[in-house]
Amino acid sequence: MDGQEYLQQIKKKVASILLQNLLIEDCAVIAREIKSSPLPELVVYIVSSQPPLLKQLQSCLHGVIPDSILPKTYVLVSQLPLNSIGEVDEQALANVPVRICSDPVKLAFSNGGSLPIIADAPTTLVELLQRAAQKATGKIIYLDTGKEIVQSYAQLLAEAERILFGLRKLKLQAGDKVILQLESNCDLLPAFWGCVLGGLFP
Q1: Domain-by-domain residue ranges, the chain?
Q2: Which CATH superfamily includes the segment(s) 3-94?
Q3: What residues contact 166, with CB distance under 8 A and at least 6 apart?
Q4: Other C-beta atoms within 10 Å of 187: how many?
């Protein structure tokens, strides 16, 4: 295999690997001769509305493409130019002004510390509602047709249990799906929790 055939294989392999990235819509790889090195430099032209991280691209290629010819230049383009037979026009691509894509500025990271672990904390939604019904002092406020309707968690649990009783009378079982189509806001939450109590999927 001569040098040109090897280079073509490397270019195809780079494009094939990068196209597996969901953020890349299309890409092409061309070889550019540089005076300071006997090896050509591979330039990757990427079509993407949301550019991927360069480190991510490099990590995909590392270990598959020899380090000596690993692409270091990635250029964002709106589309790849094609020639008369529908293939990528490398000459036209080489004339595209180079706008090298770079990694975005890292966002500030805020750490609020570890969440406290409570030994007897509820582990399911059902346990959570039951605990709230027993101990919570807060209230639920519904805004319905311009009026405020107040409900305690104990009242919510009781109403949800009544709704579950009705659902079971309709022969619904755990795992069944339920469509909630209710006009009033204050009916929606109890119906949702009624489904949750019975293992139904609202």
Answers
A1: 3-94, 125-197
A2: ANL, C-terminal domain (3.30.300.30)
A3: 194
A4: 15
